[in-house]
Structures are given as C-alpha cells and as structure tokens.
Amino acid sequence: MTVHHVNGINKGSIRLYALSTCGWCKKTKNLLNTLGVAYDYIDVDYLMGQERTKVIKEIEEWNPHCSFPTLVINNTHCIVGFKEKDIRKVIGS
Asked: What's the pLDDT at 93?
C-alpha cells in the first residue's frame, strides 16, 4: 500500500483517506499544507484487491459511510468531509 508522507510540523498522527479525483480531498490536502503540518495520505482509488479491502475496513471503523475525505487525527478524532473550522480547531491554525 502506498502511503504518502508530507513533511511539516509534527502535530501527532494525521492520516487522510482521499480519492485522487475528489475536489474536497484536494481542498483538505491544501489546508493541511497551508497549516504546515506533517501528515500521511492514501489515495484509495489507486488501491486494488486486498490492499483496497483492508483500507476500506480502516476507514469504516471511523466513518461507516466510507465517504471522502476522511481525516483521522491522533486516533481520537475523525473529520468527515472538508470542514475547515473543525480541522483548524483540532490541529491548530
């Protein structure tokens, strides 16, 4: 599985489950980049077979609807969709 890492300020574990063609996912990546935080992301639409099944199960633990973007922060917070205020509140601006 390809997990992409973006360097930045360490604010804990930040993982974004995204689709490469999703506009809201791109906005979330741009916001995280603007905030300058380190994060990992997976473009789920590039996965196939067992990798895809495994990642879908991970997402469903946080977001049963398996919609995108799904942002998991420090394994304690999950933000579904592009919610700038919520992301800034949890990560810090």
From this structure: 63
* Angle (CA) 4 88 1, round 5°: 15
| C-beta of residue 62 within 8 angstroms of C-beta of residue 78 | yes
Is the predicted pLDDT of residue 33 greater than 90, yes or no?
yes
For the chain, domains (ranges, CATH) are 4-91 (3.40.30.10)
Note the pLDDT of residue 1: 72
Cis peptide before 64 (omega within 30 of 0): no
Query: How do residues 6-16 score in pLDDT, each as one tens digit?
Result: 999 999 999 99
Separation in Å, CA 51 to CA 11, 26, 44, 60: 27, 22, 9, 14
